[in-house]
Amino acid sequence: MRDNLYKRIILLATPLALQSMVSFSVGLADNLMVGSLGELALSGVYVANQIQNMLHMLVAGIEASMLVLATQYWGKRDIKNTKAIIGISLKFSLAVSMAIFLATLLYPEQILRLFTNEQDVITEGMKYLSIIRFTYILFCVNQVMISAMRCVEQVRIGLVVSITTFVVNVSLN
How many domains does one find in the chain? Predict the structure, then answer.
């Protein structure tokens, strides 16, 4: 009994740990690439990424709530309510990502000023923000769907998506 539990934990935890490492590597690759452009560019990207970090925290909260609720329904094999919880989470994450997208589209300089007053850094940050804001919606959908896969014990899909993201990101960098 206990051996089966350990085996199951390892089968679920290993892809999750690898996915976290791959996700960290994406950020590291971005920092290395931007770092080669100079301190000002790196500072601008850092400031603009604070918005992404806030979005990530908000979506992580939505994901955590979804995981708690949906896995309970999944454990009971109540597929209807599992899907309902995932759908609600997806709607919330879409609303959050759309709000942040629109805010950064309409008020980019004002939002970046929340993090710094240095005009040169804001100017560089706006260049990066003008590109990265278009990924917010895709990021949220991706995160919630990977989390949904975790709810139904399909953790390898998230690992494959993370590895693919890493390869595409590094290739495009």
Answer: 1
In this prediction, the residues of the chain whose per-residue pLDDT falls under 70 are 1, 26-27, 173
Question: Taking every pair of C-alpha atoms in the chain, what is the biggest distance, in angstroms?
Answer: 62
Residue 42 sits at the vertex; the CA angle it makes with 38 and 47, to the nearest 5 degrees, is 155
| pTM score of the predicted model | 0.78
- Residue owning tokens 């040169």: 120
Residue-wise DSSP of 52-66 = HHHHHHHHHHHHHHH
Q: How far apart are CA 70 and CA 74, in angstroms?
A: 6
Q: What pLDDT is recorded for position 170?
A: 74
Do the Cβ atoms of 104 and 129 come closer than 8 Å?
yes
Task: Determine the Cα–Cα distance for residues 102 and 105; give it in Å rounded to an integer.
Answer: 5
Specify the pLDDT at position 155: 73
Give the residue numbers spanning the domain of 53: 2-172
> In this structure, what token pair is assigned to residue 61?
């909260």
25, two tokens: 């590597």
Q: Which residue has the tokens 């918005």?
A: 51
Q: How far apart are CA 66 and CA 145, in angstroms?
A: 11
Q: Contact at 8 Å (CB) between 90 and 144?
A: yes
Q: What is the C-alpha separation between 67 and 39, in angstroms, rounded?
A: 40
- Map tokens 């960098």 to a residue: 173
Closest CA to 97 of 63, 125, 61, 135: 135
